[in-house]
Amino acid sequence: MSKPDESRRAFLVGAVAGAAAGAGAVATAALVSEAPPAAAETGVDPLAFGARQGAFLNAADSETVAALAERIMPGAPGMPGAKEAGVLNYIDLALAGAYTDLQEFYRHGLAALETHCRKTYSESFAKLTPAQQDETIRTLEEGKAESFTWPAPRVFFDTLRTHTMEGMFADPVYGGNKDFSGWNLVGFPGVQLIFTPAELESRQAFTRSPVAGLQSKAKTRST
User: Fold this and answer.
1) CB-based burial of residue 132 (10 Å sphere; 0-12 exposed, 13-18 middle, 19+ buried)?
2) What ranges in the chain are assigned the alpha helix state H?
3) Spatial CA neighbour of 30 closest among 16, 41, 47
4) Most-buried pick from 62, 84, 101, 102 (CB within 10 A)?
């Protein structure tokens, strides 16, 4: 992983971990509370066979979203990133459920991004080198991608970054945070029925799996 990747990752992980350390689990809990409702409320089962691809995004858009999310939250040896956490699956399901009002937002934003990348590099975003992808992201952040009208380039990127963080740290029942990878990354214990006296006194990292999401994890493994 390159130095820029390490810096980006350290900043994002530190922001979540620091907030959790200062206010219990407030940071992660806030992400969970803002995530899409469970399958029963959306009509989309994140555990159903076939739900993990194409609930809303087509193949080309899925590739772009996955590449963007991975540049926002890159993985490293022993440390999961957006790909390992299933952020694409989370965003895809959210757009087919609670975030249906953002479908046109994503369609227009991804089309504008494709136009920008084709014009600038003659390739789609997912096919660019990491350096070109980072330069493209910088252009979005600075609002300089002229192919964008609506949504504005900065607004599009900020929204996708927010959804990437939700996919990393929300309860796995929403389709992301696969195998609690995001929670494990920041040392968040999740929901526990009880903490033993030894666990409360220990200064070691908490390793017991959270209660929340265990049912979805078990079902996923059985498919």
Assistant:
1) middle
2) 3-22, 26-34, 39-42, 59-72, 82-85, 87-96, 103-121, 130-141, 153-169, 181-186, 197-201, 214-222
3) 16
4) 62
Q: Tally Cβ neighbours within 10 Å of residue 187.
A: 12
CA 79 to CA 198: how far, in whole Å? 27
Q: Which two tokens stand for residue 184?
A: 């494990």
CA triple 165-152-36, angle to 5 deg: 35
Mean pLDDT across 199-211? 63
Q: Find, among 103, 105, 118, 115, the residue nearest to 57 by Cα.
A: 103
> Is 70 exceeded by the pLDDT of residue 87?
yes
- pLDDT of 34 > 50? The answer is no
Q: Break the chain into its structural domains and give their ranges.
A: 3-222
